[in-house]
Amino acid sequence: MAVPWEEYFQLALQEKMPKKIPEQNVDHLPPVLRLLEKRQELVDADRALQAQKEVFQTMMAAQKQRWEQVEQKERELKGSFVRFDKFLQDTEARRSRALRRAAEERLQASRQEAEALRLWAQLEELQRERARLQRRLERLEPCARLLGQVLEQLPEFQEVPELVARFDGLADMQEALRLTERQRLAELEEARARLQQLRDAGQDELLGQGQRRAQLLERLEAARERTLRGESKWIEIQNTAAEKTLLLGRTRMAALNLFQLVCQHKRQPPALDIEDTEGQLEQVKLFILDLSAMLASIRQAEPTPASQP
Fold this sequence. Notes:
Elements: H1 5-16, H2 23-26, H3 31-153, H4 160-208, H5 213-266, H6 277-301
Helix pairs in contact: 1-3, 4-5, 4-6, 5-6
């Protein structure tokens, strides 16, 4: 705790002042001596006080210098704290950047690993697809030989598309024959109905009106002649239809055989009805087109002899 200036100087003066004369000697000294003594004490006290002031000023100067040094050290310490704080911040920033960089590198490495795994899986899938296509080619090889044999037995066809076009034409012809047959049957039924009407009318007139018998007989004969002509025409149509039907039956048998061969090659049970010739021809057509496209793609994919090692 700081001591006030007055108390400090009082204490210093009391320390420097001489001891009091004993009570018994004071009475024996003359007043002039006592005055001189007091003056001397005052001079001594002034000297002591001046010395104490100099000491105190020296101490205050030293104390001030010490405070200045402490403040300088405090400023230096604050500067050190600021620099250390900045150093910590820079270190933390570098550490954060290093952590982010490491995380990004780990993420990139994981992505590259995932991409490598995906590419490896894709390669394996392509290899499996190639093996599957190779096995399918080996399975379809007998069908190709069969088509070649069919083309050899049918010299009018040069290529597989021509055979497919012929099948399409036969299917159209079959449909046209069916339509013609339905029309002829309708005409025949109409003629038979008219004939029956005429017969019924003739019988009624024979019973009711004898005078019209001759006329009715003539009309009957004419109707019979027309019927005979219609029947002869119908027989001719039937003969033609029989030939076309025989051809159609052979075509349908050929289509059925080809369809069964296709189903056997695919190892699938026939899913179409035996009478569904159009569906069978469509399946055979699709199979032939797929086989032709596959053979063409395989020929294109095969390396030339010059490029082989």
